[in-house]
Automatic annotation (TrEMBL):
Gene3D superfamilies: BEACH domain, YVTN repeat-like/Quinoprotein amine dehydrogenase
Coiled coil feature spans: none
Organism: Adineta steineri
The protein's name: Uncharacterized protein
UniProt xrefs under SUPFAM superfamilies: BEACH domain, PH domain-like, WD40 repeat-like
Superkingdom: Eukaryota
BEACH domain sequence ranges: 296-603
Pfam families linked to this entry: Beach (PF02138), PH_FAN (PF25400)
Domain BEACH-type PH: 190-292
Length: 991
């Protein structure tokens, strides 16, 4: 976005902002102008005549003469130098007059009823309209007048038509001229470039759409405008500097594409933006796909991935997260009807000191801005009840909106006065309605029935926080410059005789820079961090529309939510209605795209981060018991965050390095589980596989120690525990609990290699198991493809004494374990995870469902459903964080980390191709490791949400299971091998 800067250049600079909003500039001609505006009508003024869709604009070379805009609708007569007259008062009749005008050869003569003078002496000021009959003579120096008359005649006729037909005719003229536009191939950066895409497009900037030709090669993206508005004929964008690309919704249709490029040899936080709009969605998608497929495009997708998780953990600021949400919500700095929206966070604009530790300094973020004042809200509700509208219209509380072009112009009129002149037909608003004082604006937002505006990002853009700038060529931006009348514009005098100059700041702000700094500190404060998720729910989340919006007093005019479905594909007879919808957007704005359909999780406060920078140690109230205590209606089971302390889980960005140690093939077929040996945890591992064997692996010698044959069917799950043979002795052994695809459980004594129990527990494959270490009696929990999770008593085999398993001396080997209770599901249970200290059981199913249950009662607390398109695929693995607040789960195509309290996905990653599907999962507080079918593992830092390693474990062999034990990671593979890696970490991992 280009702001007006002070300049010493003594000539006019014509801009598309000199035209009406979205008016098209076609071409210009070098002319000499004579007119009745001058005292000396013989004086010729040299300049350029700009032919535009709604007007002619004469731009004199001498800045002492004003630019002159002549609206077609004010023109009463055209003539050329041969007196060939186009009668504009009698339809389209053209009469030829044979007289020759020797005085004005090759000239266009026009008569109009009014003219508009712009930029008198180069000043930024409202335009001046002169009424009365005025005659102009434009002498064409290098071109023939007939060339100009042909297009001007068409454009004039368009202005005499009804609005919808006028727009259609202008669009037709634009399309006709675009067809004749040939891209200048001499402008290519390299003649060896391969042309991949070429289509008509519009470049979009606030209030501006400029047509031209877009050409894409394997190296660059080019745009050649239909006109000569730019200094360079062709704008060039090097794909190697492409930083980001996103599809955009423009006028209700997904036909826009916004590209951001890093500027070479500029500040690293600057970028250049190209916002293109195409004729339809197919062309737009083709352009997007072609760009992203280029090898020269190196977009770091991790920069924008998993932002919710990064925000929760405090890695990114509230400001950056709001920018991210605006971006995902289809908001753009180049679309004034969808400009990024930020909240009012303060309500104290009167005191001399601003206390950011006082909650009374802040606005209630749980309510929309229109609902903060109860008296006003009651008035609006009464109007809502009495509102009478056609049946296809929905009633609304607020007739205005919190973000629209008018509010953008209101706040930025000092730094971007051209916006106001463009949108308001060459005028600034009345001085009493201009942005004059922060306290006055806040009072209006609280009391006026028609004022519910929120703020812009500019209110929080502080250079002290090193923000990414959002202007593509505004590198010298100053903090709060939009609050200063740096161009000395005369905005007029208010009713109290006070001139409108710089914005009057609150007493607690020393100057604009200090104001912006304190506004930003307020945005990043603990209070806002604790409550910002509530505002996100209103603007981007589940309270944005529907019944939740109604309950939250958050209802706006129905068109701000988008065109009704029946209007998305508009026939000719509805064209006028479609245009009225677009006019509504330009005036009232649009609701952002809805991003969340569940309550948004809150952010960890700064104090929490300081208090808990060490490795998490859960000291809060047991979550599941808190849940049950707070649930009074069992038909509406929900998790609450009362009495739950959210803790961060790591402190460094650098997790550490993986160093290969050894590899050993233990099984003939795939390894299904690896666990530490309970009696020899530092030196031995236990593995099971599809070959039916249980094997004891010596890590320090990288070879197999002992083995047991368990079943002729593949083994699926394994749990091992140390057992004391008596209370008063240290003599002990180890037991292995093994689930099998023959539906049976096997228990083995690892010291003797003998079987203790073999019992069928399910009607289908046992997929997972767990042995309790806290409950009385000791329980075995098993999940199965028969769609049940069953709980079995082990009291005849084991009992607990002072946190030790004690073997029952009177156990009879022919005894069977008895089922205590079970949980039934709608789909086969493919995996489970138990967090016994918090009484939580998570279950993954074949249909992609994930359930959270109370471990002791079997009560289903919550069903967690992924928002990804692959949620119907079976869940392969899942794991709970040790504090019970986050759950990671994996399907063949997607890995997801979900905030359990809100149900919001805070981290997601999707596999790139069918050749590298997801297979196995390891999750700890610091990291997430995903094993793939191509033999590699991706390692993600959950503090930053970034992928920090890709481990190439083996070649084209699936990673079937991942285990961590005492500073080492062990990867089981589809060929029966165990790959060992030493993990050198800067952190004290407790995994």
């Amino acid at each position: 976005m280009t702001s007006i800067r002070e300049t010493s250049v003594r000539q006019h600079i014509f801009s598309l902002y000199n035209l009406s909003a979205n008016e098209i500039y076609f071409e210009d001609y070098i002319v000499n102008c004579q007119s009745t505006l001058n005292d000396d009508q013989e004086t010729k003024i040299k300049g350029r005549l700009k032919v535009c869709s709604k007007s002619l604009v004469f731009v004199p070379i001498d800045i002492r003469s004003p630019m002159i805009k002549i609206l077609y609708k004010q023109i009463t007569k055209f003539e050329d130098s041969k007196k060939n007259e186009l009668s504009l008062t009698d339809s389209t009749i053209i009469s030829s007059i044979s007289n020759t005008n020797k005085k004005q050869p090759n000239s266009l003569i026009l008569i109009c009823s009014s003219v508009i003078l712009m930029s008198i002496n180069g000043r930024i000021e409202p335009y001046t309209t002169l009424y009365g009959t005025h005659r102009f003579y434009f002498e064409f120096i290098y071109t023939n007048v007939e060339d100009c008359l042909s297009v001007v005649g068409q454009l004039y006729r368009a202005t005499t038509l009804p609005y919808s037909e006028q727009v259609m005719m202008i669009e037709s003229i634009v399309q006709g001229r675009l067809k004749m536009l040939k891209f200048d191939l001499t402008q290519l950066q390299d003649l060896n470039e391969t042309i991949l895409f070429e289509e008509d497009a519009y470049v979009i900037k606030p209030l501006i759409q400029n047509p031209g030709r877009c050409l894409l090669t394997n190296q660059c993206c080019y745009f050649q405008a239909l006109n000569n508005i730019n200094e360079q004929k062709v704008a060039k964008y090097d794909l190697r500097t492409l930083y980001k690309i996103a599809k955009r919704r423009y006028k209700f249709r997904y036909i826009g594409c916004e590209l951001q490029f890093k500027l070479i040899n500029q500040q690293p936080n600057q970028k250049k933006i190209l916002y293109l709009v195409f004729a339809n969605e197919n062309i737009c998608s083709k352009f997007y796909d072609t760009v992203t497929a280029q090898t020269s495009v190196k977009i770091d997708s991790t920069t924008f991935e998993n932002m919710t998780l990064r925000w929760q953990q405090g890695t990114i600021s509230n400001y950056d997260y709001l920018l991210y949400l605006n971006d995902r919500g289809e908001r753009s700095f180049h679309d004034c009807s969808q400009y990024p929206v930020f909240p009012w966070v303060l309500r104290n604009y009167t005191s001399t000191n601003l206390d950011l530790h006082d909650p009374q300094s802040f606005r209630d973020l749980s309510k929309p801005i229109g609902a903060i004042n109860i008296e006003r809200l009651e008035r609006l509700k009464e109007r809502y009840i009495n509102m009478s509208l056609p049946s296809d219209h929905q009633r609304f509380l607020y007739g205005s909106f919190y973000s629209n072009p008018g509010f953008l112009v209101y706040f930025l009129c000092r730094i971007h006065p051209q916006f106001s002149l463009c949108l308001n037909d060459g005028r600034f608003d009345h001085p009493d309605r201009l942005f004059h004082s922060l306290i006055d604006t806040w009072k209006s937002v609280l009391t006026s029935d028609s004022d519910v505006k929120e703020l812009l990002p500019e209110f929080y853009m502080s250079s002290e926080f090193k923000d990414i700038e959002d202007d593509d060529d505004d590198g010298d931006r100053q903090d709060g410059e939009f609050l200063m009348n740096k161009f000395g514009i005369d905005f007029g005098i208010r009713h109290d005789d006070v001139p409108v100059n710089d914005v009057i700041l609150p007493p607690w702000a020393e100057d604009p820079r200090d104001f912006i700094k304190k506004m930003r500190l307020a945005l990043e404060s603990d209070y806002v961090s604790q409550h910002l998720h509530e505002w996100i729910d209103l603007i981007f989340g589940y309270k944005q529309r529907g019944e939740e919006a109604h309950q939250a007093d958050n209802l706006f005019h129905y068109l701000t939510y988008g065109v009704p479905e029946k209007h998305l594909s508009t026939p000719i007879d509805e064209y006028n209605e479609q245009l009225s919808f677009e006019t509504q957007i330009l005036e009232f704005g649009q609701v952002p795209k809805q991003l969340f359909f569940k309550p948004h999780p809150r952010k960890l406060t700064e104090q929490e981060l300081k208090e808990h920078k060490h490795e998490e140690k859960m000291t809060s109230t047991n979550m599941a018991s808190t849940v049950i205590e707070n649930i009074t209606n069992l038909t509406d089971l929900q998790l609450t965050d009362q009495s739950i302390q959210r803790l961060p889980s790591f402190e460094e960005h650098d997790l550490g390095q993986f160093e290969f140690d050894s590899v050993c093939r233990l099984h003939k077929t795939a390894i299904t589980r690896i666990v530490p040996h309970p009696s020899l945890p530092l030196t031995h591992l236990l593995t099971i596989g599809n070959d039916g064997f249980l094997r004891n692996y010596m890590v320090n010698k990288s070879k197999m120690d002992t083995f047991c044959f368990v079943s002729s069917r593949p083994l699926t799950c394994l749990k091992s525990i140390p057992v004391h043979l008596a209370i008063d002795t240290n003599e002990k052994c180890s037991l292995a609990f093994i689930g099998s695809s023959d539906n049976a459980l096997y228990i083995f004594n690892l010291e003797t290699g003998t079987s203790i129990l073999s019992q069928v527990l399910h009607d289908d494959i046992i997929t997972d198991l767990y042995v309790t270490n806290r409950s009385i009696p000791t329980l075995l929990c098993t999940s199965s493809n028969d769609a049940t999770v069953r709980f079995w008593s082990l009291e005849n085999l084991l009992f607990m004494n002072e946190d030790k398993y004690i073997f029952q001396t009177n156990y009879h080997f022919s005894s069977k374990i008895q089922m205590q209770y079970d949980i039934s599901f709608d789909s086969p249970c493919t995996c489970m995870y138990v967090l016994e200290e918090h009484s939580l059981l998570s279950v993954g199913c074949q249909d992609g469902s994930v359930y959270l249950c109370h471990f002791q009662t079997g009560q289903i607390l919550k069903q967690l459903t992924s928002s990804s398109s692959s949620s119907s695929l079976p869940i392969l693995s899942l794991s709970l964080r040790s504090d019970g607040l986050f759950l990671a789960y994996l399907s063949a195509t997607t890995v997801t980390l979900v905030d359990i309290i809100s149900g919001t996905d805070v981290f997601t990653n999707t596999c790139l191709s069918n050749e590298q599907m997801f297979k196995s999962l390891f999750y700890s507080s610091q990291m997430l490791i995903v094993g793939l079918t191509n033999g590699s593992c991706d390692v993600w830092n959950l503090k930053t949400g970034e992928k920090v390693h890709t481990l190439n474990i083996c070649d084209k062999i699936s990673i079937t299971t991942i285990t961590h034990n005492h500073g080492m990671f062990f990867f089981g593979t589809d060929d029966g091998s165990v790959h060992s890696y030493v993990f050198a970490s800067r952190l004290q991992l407790s995994i």
